[in-house]
Inverse folding.
């Protein structure tokens, strides 16, 4: 059975993490993603990100974000390069970029610039701050957005300095959100026969992720702050508890879990205590309740508590990355995959989290710089060998 996006061609002008991560999801779902890379720079910057550089202008970082794509080494600043790009637009469903907010229009990557070539084209821009406004022309990165949005101000322990998430959370979320927008644009294009602009920014994505905390603030003046033990701001107990040899996460997100937790902890008196009957009661008396629970959890090991609670109360360990990647459920879900690679033989990667009818796209490594340039010019655009050689001699195209 074909994957959902087979037959969909997307031209991507992208770099680093957020954009390439997003478009890789579409490639994993069957889309043909043509990654345009600049011959003057030897390809996108992700190819040179340390510490794990690979032979042939490659890196493990680049491989992490560009699986299942095709690379076209093209100088879009040149007249001939622009003509090749526009020829691709005519036979594609979408143009995607994750450039600075003032650049999509300047570079002619928006719908108004391209609709005369293909009225159905969907033009999706993932920017730092948006395509207009006081910061549109500023570069935007994940770390900055965690600060701008307020997320860092509520992450970490109460007495700590502001803390960023250990992964590029906003980049990845922005990549996913932009792909939802792009696919929505494609659906609309199929329905009405007309494309559109789709705009997503990292800062908007980050602010949207504040969700109920922002709504509480806007409507009741709630001031979000760091909470000890990575606890939920309202649902008690839902937090990290130290054990004899580590930590366990316990989440009582329903009242029934509170009663069951008390039973399994051997603390039935807590369930019957009027101070702790409901969510509101436990929040009001949190300073009394949490020390009692902490004392109980310190009496056992993490493994002992997980064995007792698992299946009855939502709980889990605090794994390190190595432990997470060896977890039986993660392995069962086939989230660690092997991809053939020209210099490494095979490299291990993290699979696309989306399965369709239980299937995933056959895995191909990220492309070499300009690896598919001649093939695409010949097979997609119908250029002759002589025309391709001429473009290469004039520096319009590059790659192997």
């Amino acid at each position: 059975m074909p994957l959902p996006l087979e037959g969909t061609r997307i031209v991507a002008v992208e770099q680093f993490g957020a954009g390439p991560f997003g478009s890789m999801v579409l490639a994993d779902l069957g889309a043909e993603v043509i990654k345009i890379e600049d011959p003057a720079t030897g390809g996108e910057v992700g190819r040179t990100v340390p510490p794990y550089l690979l032979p042939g202008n490659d890196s493990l970082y680049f491989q992490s974000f560009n699986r299942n794509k095709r690379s076209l080494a093209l100088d879009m600043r040149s007249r001939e390069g622009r003509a090749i790009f526009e020829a691709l637009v005519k036979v594609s469903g979408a143009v995607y970029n994750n450039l600075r907010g003032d650049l999509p229009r300047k570079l002619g990557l928006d719908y108004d610039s391209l609709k005369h070539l293909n009225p159905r084209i969907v033009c999706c821009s993932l920017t730092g701050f948006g395509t207009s406004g006081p910061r549109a022309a500023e570069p935007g990165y994940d770390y900055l957005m965690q600060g701008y949005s307020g997320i860092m101000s509520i992450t970490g322990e109460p007495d700590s300095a502001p803390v960023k998430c250990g992964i590029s959370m906003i980049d990845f979320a922005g990549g996913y959100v932009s792909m939802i927008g792009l696919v929505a644009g494609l659906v609309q294009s199929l329905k009405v026969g007309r494309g559109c602009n789709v705009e997503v920014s990292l800062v908007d994505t980050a602010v949207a992720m504040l969700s109920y905390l922002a709504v509480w603030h806007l409507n009741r003046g709630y001031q979000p702050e760091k909470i000890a033990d990575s606890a939920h701001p309202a649902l008690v107990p839902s937090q990290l508890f130290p054990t004899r040899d580590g930590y366990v996460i316990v989440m009582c997100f329903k009242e029934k879990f509170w009663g069951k937790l008390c039973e399994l902890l051997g603390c039935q008196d807590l369930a019957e205590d009027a101070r702790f009957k409901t969510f509101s009661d436990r929040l009001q008396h949190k300073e009394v309740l949490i020390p009692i629970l902490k004392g109980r959890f310190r009496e056992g090991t993490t493994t002992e508590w997980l064995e007792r609670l698992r299946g009855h109360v939502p709980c889990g360990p605090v794994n390190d990355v190595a432990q997470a990647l060896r977890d039986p459920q993660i392995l069962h879900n086939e989230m660690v995959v092997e991809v053939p690679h020209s210099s490494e033989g095979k490299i291990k990667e993290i699979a696309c989290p989306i399965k369709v009818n239980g299937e995933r796209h056959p895995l191909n490594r990220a492309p070499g710089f300009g690896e598919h340039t001649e093939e695409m010019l010949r097979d997609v655009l119908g250029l002759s060998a002589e025309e391709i050689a001429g473009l290469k001699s004039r520096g319009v195209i590059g790659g192997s």
